[in-house]
Amino acid sequence: MHDLAGDGPLPEQLGDCDFFVAALDTQRVIDAMPRFSGLQVVQSLNAGVEGLVDHIPAGVTLCDGSGIPDIGVAEWVVMVMLAMRRRMSSYIDAQRAARWQPGPWPAGGDDLDGATVLIVGYGSIGRVLEQRLTAFGARVERVARRPRAGVHGADALPALLPAADVVVILLPVTPSTRGFVDAAFLAAMRRGALLVNASRGAVVDTGALVAALHDGHVTAALDVTDPEPLPGGHPLWSAPGVLITPHVAGSVRAWSARAWRFTGEQVQRFVRGEPLLNRVDDGY
């Protein structure tokens, strides 16, 4: 077993390794892979593997960590939906100023009962999110890159976006999804709707989003940004109607236990010669 934690230089040769568990430091994983002999499988603990997919050695199988962050990310999405729709930031500001400020009617904002939530990139996280939203009485519409029963394709977005109260982005970064949420996408959203991005910052055109926020056309909750980390002075920090967290949606205490439980199952499959889960075979 090799433990590559830390940031020191790697030796030229790391010896034999059949199954490599790739933690969160993508560049260190890229540096390590060619130093192993006999490598067969790279198991990422990240659900998104856009940084790895083009660096996997020939003949090596890449598996992503889909499923590991689902609960944490889904709960983050529900949290920011409630916070934004119930105007929580204004009450936090008032508390810090020691000011009792209920505001005009309806001071409490909007609940989720009866709200239409459009999930763009409906996969394992989307399924967990839908379970939680259903308990709040929300109505869910589903869109994925590959349409299937009960799930629309992207060609349905022009009809779905104007009717959505909340649009949740759960798309991976690929050449076809980079900048997918552009000015036209945002303009098609209902005025006053909430955009939630819990996937990758590059899926959203940052300049177009900043313009839509200043226009008041949409509000937004972002766990990811482009660029990331978001530098001080960037216009997103001061844009109206936006809530930003520093890529922590899946960072819950139970993540580690879920990650290693899944990894243990994958190793057992590998040892027994059974099909591996989450194989990235046909591009990403």
- Category by helix and strand content: alpha/beta
Distance between the termini: 29 Å
Strand content: 5-15%
Strand order, sheet with most strands: 7-6-8-9-10-11
Q: How many independent structural domains? A: 2
Large-scale geometry: globular
Tag the structure with descriptive keywords.
30% helix; 3-stranded parallel β-sheet; 284 residues; single chain; 6-stranded parallel β-sheet; alpha/beta; 9 helices; 2 domains; Rossmann fold; 11 strands
Structure notes:
This protein has helices at residues 26-32, 70-85, 88-96, 124-135, 157-160, 183-188, 206-215, 235-238, 255-272, and strands spanning 15-16, 19-22, 36-37, 41-44, 61-63, 116-120, 139-143, 166-169, 193-197, 218-222, 242-244. α2 packs across α4 (124-135). It folds into two domains: 15-68 and 252-272, no CATH class; 70-244, NAD(P)-binding Rossmann-like Domain (Rossmann fold, 3-Layer(aba) Sandwich), CATH 3.40.50.720. The protein is α/β, with parallel strands linked by helices. Strands 7-6-8-9-10-11 form a six-stranded parallel sheet, sandwiched between helices. Strands 2-4-5 form a three-stranded parallel sheet, covered by helices on one side. It is built from nine helices and eleven strands.
Topology:
Blueprint: E1 15-16, E2 19-22, H1 26-32, E3 36-37, E4 41-44, E5 61-63, H2 70-85, H3 88-96, E6 116-120, H4 124-135, E7 139-143, H5 157-160, E8 166-169, H6 183-188, E9 193-197, H7 206-215, E10 218-222, H8 235-238, E11 242-244, H9 255-272
Parallel strand pairs: 1-3, 2-4, 4-5, 6-7, 6-8, 8-9, 9-10, 10-11
